[in-house]
Amino acid sequence: MLVGGVLVGALLRRVLPEHHLDTHAKDVVRLGCALIATISGLVLGLLINSAKTNFDTQRDEIRQLAANIILIDHLLHQFGPEARPARGLLRDATAAMVDGIWRGATLKPANAPFIPTAIGLSADRAIRTLSPTTEAQRVYQSQAIQAINAVLQARLILYEQSSGRMPTPFLAVLVFWLFILFVSFSLFSPLSPTAMAALVVIALSASGAIFLILEMYQPFSGIMQIDSEPLRQALAPLPS
Q1: pTM of the entire structure?
Q2: Residue 219: what pLDDT?
Q3: Among 105, 150, 156, 231, which is disulfide-ready with 220 (CB 3.0 to 4.6 Å)?
Q4: What's the Cα-to-Cα distance from 214 to each of 39, 52, 172, 210, 217, rounded to whole Å?
Q5: How many other CB atoms are found less than 10 A from the CB of residue 200?
């Protein structure tokens, strides 16, 4: 798209009459493109910062999710052998949740409601229906339920954030600004092979910035996706 702008500029330079490309026109175009370049640079910087913040936030939420799951398993272990079935269900529910987060990011239909997994509901029910017989067990169950609520809240937040995308009109306007800039690069000057190669590299660099922004808005499905292994390996298999 941006390289196309260079070619469009070169074509216009050949087609337009000479009086359309005089010094006054050149000054107007250069001043206008300087303004567009400034705005585009500011917008690109803000978008990269926003996308990076979004990416880091979801990565931190995954880490907190893993920490809460480990905490639940520890509390169930402290509860006693009665909680062993619930710990097994927790492991199965964690594996299902990981698949739901990473695979769901690519398979989730637009505006689809959140549907908890059956194994997740079973794990939640098993923990909430434990029958403590001592004060210590009541404390462990209460803390495990609080951690479960935190996990559910984090899961819902991640589900909603997975729908976040860079607004298409915003992206279209930004690409249009950059297109105009690249048209101006070749509008008044003939392109030597060196200049053309330099403009291609510049276009790839600007396109790379937009690519990074779009990728960071897809932390569970893009090339730069968050690693799922820490969450998958959060709970070791139960000893036999």
Answers
A1: 0.80
A2: 87
A3: 105
A4: 19, 10, 13, 6, 5
A5: 13
